[in-house]
Specification:
The structure holds two protein chains of two kinds.
Chain A (H helix, E strand, L loop, with lengths): L1 H31 L6 H19 L3 H23 L8 H23 L14 E4 L2 E4 H23 L1 H11 L1 H6 L4 H23 L11 H14 L5 H20 L5 H15 L14
Antiparallel strand pairs in A: 1-2
Chain B lengths: L1 H6 L1 H21 L4 H27 L6 H18 L3 H25 L3 H21 L1 H4 L5 E2 L4 E2 L2 E2 L2 H24 L1 H11 L1 H6 L4 H27 L1 E2 L6 H14 L4 H17 L13 H16 L3 H26 L1
Antiparallel strand pairs in B: 1-4, 2-3
Helix pairs in contact in B: 2-8, 3-8, 3-11, 3-12, 3-13, 4-5, 4-6, 4-11, 5-6, 5-11, 8-9, 8-11, 12-13, 12-14, 13-14
Classes of the chains: A mainly alpha, B mainly alpha.
Chain lengths: 291, 337
């Protein structure tokens, strides 16, 4: 029993991190049609800002996270306003290459601004744990799971039930028609980038206590989040979230029962095989390309 | 006849190679440092790898983020075949070419059937898997301690640094010729057709998947070759070298140099790799910053895509047009006078 519930709870915790990062990627994809390869690095940058505010200026965690939100929103605005918005003529490949360039910029900027020493970020709730069916989970783990689920659910409600959500979905389905209908698509896109930035920052803050804050600490999150989008399909907002949890759970169980070293590799291979059977992901609709 | 020989692009490539090959001897006479030669050697290796990526990105619009992984694989395979199995230079190079292609084909077949962008994600994943493998497969790579190697022996002759440099130059010239022939042959016409409209090309009977796979295999093969040369030149390989940053640098080389341009790619390698190493690091105040080359390449990528979609090659074209126009204007004035 212990060998089942314990890893399950642990997986839900990391699954939330992947889900948040994946949500950021999917929001940008839906509104700007850009595959956001820099989601992890932007999250890394604002996450490092949080660690910096905490370690250098001794701010409490919640204030440091607020600093992170400001940094993330600012970066999201800046990237869309300065670069993406001016790229109307560039091909989609060009836009993707831009996000690759952004990775390099943030990788280079982070050590210059925040110093080269690796930093630590404490857990939001330092100690204490629950006992669930013979397995234990820290309060912090529960908080992570709740935050992940709450944000995913909150975004779902906003997207499906509110006027703002309608604007986002309209922009996502057809940018031009949406503009004709009076939807400020540019503002929608601008705020999508900012939202993606904040989601990336939260993912960084949640994963940071398990590692040290270095310029590359979000790389695995980025890869997994992209794969969550692929597995979940790019057509819905909830597909990638579901896929993120599935990936986290299967990764942990493969590591536990098959191989600690090769668990992730096996899982990525399995996802690629799965895509052969269902090319559009778990909840994918057929993707039609117009001539 | 004479004009046809002068205009033969293959001769240009060979001439280019001869000039590069003379660099170590001429350079020593002019007091060039060994570190400069080292930088130039790596720059040429970057050019080889980027040429493959240029075929992939420039013609089929596909992004591969696995370049570093395949390069690393090439490097470790070369070391394993040369130093552990003692099979000699040629078999080591052959292994570094063939095995990455096989892995690339498997990845390509799966991801390209679905949607182009999936190749980028799948190769990113393969690259991360390979990186983890390099760190953990001790018998093959010696893990993080790094694999040590030595200069290769070709036809019984023990090479030194300068000789390996010349081997790199020869490889570059061969790769340039191969790429030129591919682009100007039937393959190139199919790739060109695909680039302007995949649907139209498909209607004309071009098998899109086949050509995309071909372009990707070439990119993987050049990456494997580049990795092997990297190992022979540096005589060691560490897992940290083969990170995502290397793959991004290769994309920067292609984008900055100009898509679909062979000399542009070499120039791109110079700007992205040699300029930070040779010049930026020597600048006062900002030269010592560790992240500077990253920012330099990243900002260049963004600026080039935003303002000069054809890269350095595009700039050269603009300059040439200006000259032609000026000449036409002066000619017109002379006629008027």
């Amino acid at each position: 029993m212990d060998l089942f519930v314990q890893p399950l709870l642990r997986s839900l915790e990391t699954g939330s991190v992947y889900a948040l990062a994946a949500l950021g990627i999917i929001i940008v994809w839906r509104t700007s049609l850009v595959m956001h390869f820099a989601q992890g690095s932007m999250g890394m940058f604002s996450g490092t800002a949080v660690a910096f505010a905490l370690n250098r200026y001794g701010l409490p965690l919640w204030q440091a996270v607020l600093v992170g939100v400001v940094v993330a929103v600012f970066l999201g605005f800046a990237v869309d306003f300065v670069i993406i918005r001016r790229l109307k003529r560039a091909t989609s490949v060009g836009k993707e290459i831009i996000t690759l360039g952004l990775i390099m910029v943030f990788l280079g900027l982070a050590p210059i601004i925040f110093g080269t020493d690796p930093m630590l970020l404490p857990k939001a709730i330092p100690s204490g744990d629950f006992n669930v069916g013979g397995a234990t989970i820290t309060y912090n783990g529960v908080a992570n799971i709740l935050v992940g689920v709450a944000i995913a659910a909150g975004l779902y409600v906003v997207l499906q039930k509110t006027k703002i959500g309608l604007a986002v979905r309209a922009t996502a389905s057809n940018d031009q028609t949406a503009r004709l209908m009076g939807i400020p698509t540019r503002t929608v896109t601008l705020f999508s980038w900012a939202t993606a930035g904040v989601l990336g920052m939260l993912a960084a803050v949640m994963i940071a206590p398990t590692t040290t804050v270095t310029p590359t600490f979000m790389n695995s999150v980025q890869v997994t989040a992209l794969f969550a989008c692929v597995l979940g399909g790019f057509q819905t907002f909830y597909g990638p979230v579901l896929a993120a949890y599935i990936i986290a759970v299967s990764s942990n169980f493969l590591k536990l029962y098959v191989s600690t070293v090769w668990g992730d590799q096996i899982m990525f291979g399995l996802i690629l095989l799965f895509l052969l059977l269902r090319p559009n992901g778990l909840i994918g609709k057929t993707y039609m390309k117009k001539v | 006849m004479a004009l046809r020989i002068v205009k033969n692009p293959h001769l240009h490539f060979i001439l280019f190679g001869v000039i590069l090959a003379l660099l170590p001897t001429v350079g020593r006479g002019m007091g060039m440092k060994t570190s400069t030669l080292q930088t130039l050697g790596f720059m040429l290796i970057y050019a080889i790898v980027a040429l493959g990526l240029n075929l992939l990105l420039g013609y089929s619009g596909l992004i591969s983020l696995g370049t570093a992984g395949f390069m690393g694989l090439g490097a470790y395979l070369a070391a394993y075949f040369q130093d552990d199995l003692k099979l000699g230079f040629w078999l080591a190079v052959l292994a570094a070419l063939v095995i990455p292609i096989l892995i690339g084909l498997v990845v390509g077949v799966i991801s390209l059937r679905i949607r182009s962008i999936y190749l980028a994600i799948a190769t990113l994943c393969i690259s991360e898997i390979l990186l983890k493998t390099f760190e953990q497969l001790e018998w093959f790579t010696r893990g993080t301690a790094g694999k040590q190697s030595r200069y290769p022996t070709i036809f019984g002759a023990q090479l030194d640094r300068n000789a390996v440099f010349i081997v790199i130059v020869i490889a570059l010239v061969i790769v340039m010729m191969l790429t030129y022939n591919m682009v100007h042959g039937q393959m190139g016409r199919a790739l060109h057709a695909m680039r302007s409209s995949e649907v139209a090309a498909q209607a004309m009977g071009v098998n899109i998947l086949k050509y995309k796979l071909f372009a990707f295999s070439v990119a993987t093969m050049y990456a494997g070759l580049g990795g092997a040369l990297y190992l022979f030149f540096l005589r060691s390989s560490y897992p940290t070298t083969w990170s995502l940053f290397m793959s991004l640098t290769m994309i920067a080389v292609v984008v900055v140099g100009g898509l679909r341009s062979i000399y542009g790619t070499v120039l791109g390698a110079f700007v992205i790799y040699a300029v930070p190493e040779l010049f930026l690091k020597k600048l006062p105040v900002i030269g010592g910053i560790a992240g500077l080359p990253y920012i330099f390449s990243g900002v260049l990528i963004i600026l080039v895509i935003m303002f000069f979609p054809n890269g350095l090659k595009g700039l050269a074209d603009i300059a040439r047009n200006l000259v032609v126009r000026l000449r036409a204007r002066t000619a017109a004035k002379e006629v008027a006078a």
